[in-house]
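> @MW can you paste both from yesterday?
MW: sure, first one:
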Amino acid sequence: MERCGAYRIQDGFGLRGRWRETLMPEAKELRIELGCGKGRFTAETARQMPDTLFIAIEKVPDAMVVAMERAAAMELKNVFFVVGDAALLPDYFAPDEADMLYINFCDPWPQNRQAKRRLTCCGFLTTYRKVLKTGGQIHFKTDNQPLFEYSLLQFPKAGYALSEVTRNLHANGPQGVMTDYEAKFWEQGVTINRCVGTKLAPEPPPEEEQKQKRCH
């Protein structure tokens, strides 16, 4: 962790509303990855887009160390890492501060009673709206078919327009940057699901009862 200290943000809360200003004033966009794991996707995507600022949030410090080592080995200047929780996203970022969010191969939490812990449940998707600008996107990939079908229902409930929906992303060969898990799955012949959710303009506030009904 110490060797890659320049890539770790110690106080993400303190940069709320000032990420670009502090870390990369020339950045054209700010993109967030939730659960970067060992960082293959993070580092390669940042390398391909040097004019974009990437903030990777990971709950497991040990995995994040590997991701930071990758960024350091590639001498990247546009990616930084935070040990944190997706539920706290509005505490890290100001309204409309983020242009895009990546959610790659998150825990499916398969039991019904665990649904609220899924990063693509309506509750979490509504939380992301607080930091995404209108027209901003969430790019979601998973190998878990039940989670994907569930998520396709959640995006519209939370105020996102769905596009680029596929249940076999790599049917005609590798598409885009893969995560470590994704590369392994592809080699094993496991199909990958992907979709994009675009944040729509907010609707007039519904009654509390209606709001609760939308997200269930």
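MW: second:
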Amino acid sequence: MSPKKSTTTGLAAIDPTIALDVIAAASDIAIGIDSQGTITHLKLSNDQLPLHKTSNWIGQQWNRVVTTESAIKVDELIADAVNDQPIRWRHINYPSTQGADVPILCSAIQIGTNGQIVAFGRDLRNMASLQQRLVEAHQAMERDYLRMRHMETRYRLLFELASEAVLIVDPNQERILEANPAASKILGTAVKRLVGRGLRESLPESQRHAVEDLLSRVRSTGDADSCVITGDAAGEEVAISASLFRQESGALFLVRLAPSRIPAVIDTPGSQYSVMLDVLEHSPDGFVVTDPAGKILSCNHAFIEMVHLAKREQVLSRQLSDWLGRSDVDLSVLIANIQQRGAVRLFATMLRGTSGADLEVEISGVSVKSGGMPCLGFSVREVGQRLGTERPTLNQLPRTADQLVELVGRVPLQEIVSETADLIEKLCIEAALRLTRDNRASAAEMLGLSRQSLYVKLRRYNIGEVTDRSKK
């Protein structure tokens, strides 16, 4: 006798109802079905299954209580059970009372000799939830991957088109990992030959020691630093700045190269050039030289103190707009006027120190050519004390249109509009009081205000003396 027939004979000796209870105890749902596929018994051992109208299942065809796409699977399970085929598990979906279908892993087996079939199943909702979360996680990873690809494309485009020469250098072996065309032009070597090559090997032998010292300082302190070397046989000076940035689990050098567009003035002590440079260096007013885009090429000690820094190297190669004005607009206006007129005098603006303190300054600028290359010179004078008693501030309400204009560039437009509204309101209240000969009730009626509102505004603008005796 085969194992299958032995199992069937053993189950036949058990009452179908008892067999259904035994099977239901080992599963989440057990369904008794006759040979025609009609449901005769139903046992739910999992009360959390949100199945739809289970009270009406008895007497219905099994394939009618499942979803449409699962009906064929139910018919196949019944046919396998009737024909004594090996047991198969099928994913069957049942309508739910909570919206989404209830997934159940089902199988069926025939018991007894009268064609009675028992179908039993296991709840797959937890597995389906995990699968859904896996799909959502996979979709999120795909979106992040696409976003990273787009960011990499933008980075590559900017890196290749940037006019500033940039090198990415491995800090351990000091080998060039990436180089843009601008760096290739300055170093006189093709990009393909630069990548993988040592940074020292790409520089003149006489300048390698200076660059090694620069990288050592940046590696030990972690702060950006710079130096000037002779870039080629023609003697052209190149400013090199280096900084560290983190990527994944390590750090890399970001090395920038820029031709030094202002040649060093080598002259005998006491000459007119030497005297002029000494005067500018020790001048109490700040002096800055930039390229036409506003990148600082040189500055004196006074400007370094104004922006609260310690070393000249912390200023060089940075944008003047990092400290000038409340936004980049002031520098753009300055450069545009210099390009149109050749010079600008006494441009009032703010200078933001690194520590956060603001200085009232006036700037005069001029455009000149040095070595055939245009550059801009700016004289920066602190005028905060002189302007403190002449110009309106946020703590002092402006009284004229000229004073309101003086706020432009120092105060955001939204605050200027608010100050203007306050000025107009105060002037109107004063005019109403004059017309009514200081009759508060009549003034309030003329202005369309309640007397209480008028008293509040009188106190706000400190107009007259508001007392209980003045209320009429």
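> thanks! Residues 401-470 form a domain with the Arc Repressor Mutant, subunit A fold (CATH 1.10.10.60).
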